[in-house]
Records
---
Amino acid sequence: MLEPDAALNLVLEAAQAARRADNTETVAVDHSLAGRVLADDVCALSEFPPSPVSMMDGYAVRAPPEGARMASSDEGVIFRVVSSSRAGAAAAGARTVEAGEAAYITTGAPLPPGCDAVVRIEDTLGHKTDAAGLETCFSVPAAVAASIRPGLAVRPAGCDIQVGDLLAAAGTPLRPEDVGSLAMAEIPSVAVTRRPVVGVLSTGDEVAARGAGGREAGGGSATAIGDANRPMLLAAARAAGAVALDLGVVADSRPEVKAALAAAARRCDVLVSTGGVSMGTTTS
Ligand SMILES: Nc1nc2c(c(=O)[nH]1)N[C@H]1C(S)=C(S)[C@@H](COP(=O)(O)OP(=O)(O)OC[C@H]3O[C@@H](n4cnc5c(N)ncnc54)[C@H](O)[C@@H]3O)O[C@H]1N2
Ligand code: MOO
């Protein structure tokens, strides 16, 4: 009799040896990847975000050089609005923003050229518009102006993902967050190992008596029992990421069991049979 660990090792070694050349398939990056196992490490080919983006709704500006003070009046420090950058929209009037100028910006939008900081809208006051209703300028209190540093409320390019970062490793089942990382890095599809087909076969006259004709057919027999192993093992196979193949129930007949095993071997990568393993006259 084999100890369980030794038996498991035998099965795993046989499974390794049986790995087929066509062991991988290409799958699009979507929710169907959950639990699938990558064939290779997947690394980022591009950085994310691809350019600096705003963390706030407000105004993109150029931070003054360190130690420099911006000209302030009673109204505070005034900025001229020269362009805008909205998440998802092409940059409008994307000329370089100079010192003392600003571009209206929404959360997630790329910083226009010349800008390196964002002032939150709620930290601004004194907004003015032209005759057409377009914003021309706004001001910020001197204390807010003094707090403007390069990088304020900005997510730098590549802060989430850098080129070459390992997004997900080969050999481990993909988690939801791995799928998110792959999608974020705009990886269109990945190579995953084929899901093994695990067939489950129950044996036993008493199980077959109920199983063959359904519950009603066998239900009258005092000796028939419901098949508990097969649904449990099929569920376990599926939960482990396999394709579960239901092979039904076979009675305790050597030729029938032999035929069922031979047929099953052609359809499965792994075949699990239960019953008929002891020392009685119907076990083999
Ligand atoms: N002036 C202020 N601006 C912001 C404040 C604030 O207090 N004052 N709060 C910030 C906080 S906190 C949050 S949260 C955001 C919420 O703004 P939005 O609802 O406009 O932002 P989202 O649509 O969630 O976008 C944020 C970020 O995520 C990116 N995004 C959005 N959807 C997806 C998606 N399906 N897949 C990938 N990435 C996505 C989006 O492009 C942005 O970069 O407001 C702050 N602003
Ligand atoms: O509201 Mo935001 O979700 O704090 O980042």
Note: Residues 53, 56-58, 87, 107-108, 120-122 surround LQZAQKY5 (ligand 1) (CB under 6 Å).
---
Amino acid sequence: MTTVVATVVAPPQFPRLSVIAYRLPLRRPWRSAHVLRRERCGWLVRAELDGLAGYGDCAPLPEAGTETAEAARDRLEEWCRQAGSSPLAEQLDLLAGAARLRRGSAAVAEDQPVRPTALSSATPAADAALETALLDLDARRQRITLRARLLRDAPLFVPIPLPAVLPVNAALGAVTDCRPSALDMALSAGYSVLKLKVGVAPRDDEIRGLQALCDLLPPAVRLRLDANQAWSPAEAQQLLELLEPLSERIESLEEPLRPDPELTRHDAVLRALQAQAAFSIALDESLAGRGWPPTFADLPVRRLVLKPAVLGGLRSTLALAQAAQSAGLEVVITSLIESAAGLWASAQLAAAIGSPLAHGLATSDWLAADLGGAPTIEHGQLWLGETAGSGFTPTPSMHSRFA
Ligand SMILES: O=C(O)CCC(=O)c1ccccc1C(=O)O
Ligand SMILES: [Mg+2]
């Protein structure tokens, strides 16, 4: 006969998920090589348990490599209906394994638009938002920062303490839109890396604009350029020649080349551009087309720009960043001009990665309204603080919509 001394059934830890749609106008239009946007739309995801709440931002931006808004909404709805009533840890496991499950399921593949890439998820922005809300909640329950929570599951051990302060770049928009007054503001705010979009206006106008800006820069300040895949190989090579006299003032150049289905040919051009340039060339949106997970040993450039909403979550981005850094690559985390909920989480991820480079997380000024307070930036440094979770708190009006 067996004696049951005590049966302790732990209370099921089922978080309650809610999703609220939002629309945030931009202060001025955001221009890049392919699009002009006047607002950012998305969903704020909340995971609540025992009076604590975690938040995740889902603001798809297909031109940056996420799914469409429709696909993201369907995924959020489907998740809340099906997985949304599982325990917290189980939902996090499900999200980590979602890529494998989705590839194995013909039913899912039929009614979900599957992106023509081999990314970890067909709905990376929705998955990232769900994962972020759950991880944020879990961190708050354990009274640890989200960056500490992330490192608990990370593939590589990172010695603590983690940085609570991160260098970030100013996001100044298109070079031909950048007035000296905007430059002055960024300089007096203490930024030492200023990011500008190129490949938007005629080449000679952009070169003239860059020269004029460089003449106004103090010695320690450098420009980070982003062409968002605007140029042919010949145009990119010519651009680098024209930028040569300014090369000491340039910190890096993102995505110079227009996509080419022949990856070997594309990489040969990128390798030649990287050899020609005195600064780092970076891959950003094209990373999604390289198969999953990308291999780093023979990457033709020196730097990767990573966005968790494109890569399907904080954990997958952290794993990718650690692998890239181990292979000697530079890593930068950037925002998709997302709400404060997204920025706080991406900044926690950037802290966990421990890259010394400026991250592209100073974008909250582009929004004319926000879902909560964004992290403070002083002297070009973003302050994370030591509060449990991501640090995000919704505004009272946003909070009341969850009732
Ligand atoms: O990096 C920054 O500072 C701002 C973020 C940014 O440029 C961006 C924002 C939305 C979509 C794509 C990009 C990009 O880096 O290409
Ligand atoms: Mg970019």
Note: The first helix runs from residue 69 to 81.
